[in-house]
Records
---
Amino acid sequence: MRLDAQRLFDLSVTAAVLPLALPLMAAVGALVWASMGTPILFRHLRTGRHGRLFRLYKFRTMRAGEPGEPDHARLTAVGRVIRSLSLDELPQLWNVLRGDMAIVGPRPLLPQYLGRYTPRQSRRHEVRPGITGLAQVSGRNGISWAERFALDVWYVDHRSVAYDARIVARTVLAVLRRDGISEAGQATMSEYMGEPDVRVPAGRMVG
């Protein structure tokens, strides 16, 4: 099967970062095990390209909770540090190798959101979801769902290998600054219940 340029970019970036990522993943896994026990990884169904479901992998950051207990109450001190440095996302390199995800693309979200998107918002599924993306370097969880989806669709229409490389560079800066890690009062962001389309916010695109 012939690989397109962006898939080659994904595999090249993954191959380049794995020598550094694997020892770091081992250390994070040991920290999760020591603080919370097993399982070390969090596995969850997410929506991928063309609406296909796949199993996403992350390092676990929450303890088991009581029914109805909010996520932010279950987030542990160790988990909060792991999330603040985005280390919980590292196992998704496996998803990239499998072809479920890309390095750059709209973030994979929950299957129950599928019926809540507008037709335009659902265009975010025309490409593979990414570990990082335009919305992640433009405010991450600090912007509204409608703004995130507007950025996702803008990315779908303008993506290229060169643009992906710029987003990756911006991601490093965003992680170091710990931008938009969570919405106020949430472990990450509140549930998406449906919002109308908006225009791409001015100044959000990566130059």
---
Amino acid sequence: MSEPRFRSDIVVRLVQRVGSDAMIAAAARVSVTGADGLQGEGGNPVTDANAGLIRYLMKHRHASPFEHGQLTFYAECPIFVAREWMRHRTWSFNETSGRYRVLEPVFWVPPEGRAVVEPPAFKPSRPVLVESEQVRESVVQFCQHSYYAAWWNYQAMIADGVAREVARSVLPVGTYTSFYATVNPRNLMGFLSLRTHDASATNLSYPQAEIEDAARQMEEVFKGLFPLTYAAFVGNGRVAP
């Protein structure tokens, strides 16, 4: 019987992209230029005209042009992160299935430096935790003990011929899962506005550390592929159109 493995990282990797800043600008111009909007820019996304138009669209929340693009990511994270992510119903997801395959014994534990303690002034609406290495180490031990028990029970049921879809019920939300996630720039900006804590944001958000890790990785990809749109998003206080 394979032994549980423990990790703390969140993996996000770009699989494919469609579109650019030029396509977003062309989608806005099509009402007055027709198909010439894209060709008129020579396909070059980074121009002063495109930058000005995209800033205008962002400021005045003309949202639909920002839907003319697409990014697909591959993610590995614990189930509790995936479930937060999948609350964003404007994304498209396909996840590994515990009905059709035996899952891997990979489980999440909090890494060093991960805040785990609620301070006396803790507010559920604004959850800011504090670090305690002693408490974190005890959390790791509790997690590992639970994971070993859950994995033993899961493997025992599989060995007894119990259906995978039933046996998986004993596995905890700290179990790692993997999935593809596809989103357009508009909805990615909505995700970033909610799943990052940034002092420059007009509306501060207080996400869980692990989903913010995922969001920050996607933000770096977005920044590189849609630089004008990203700059307008940041300049607009990280408010999505």
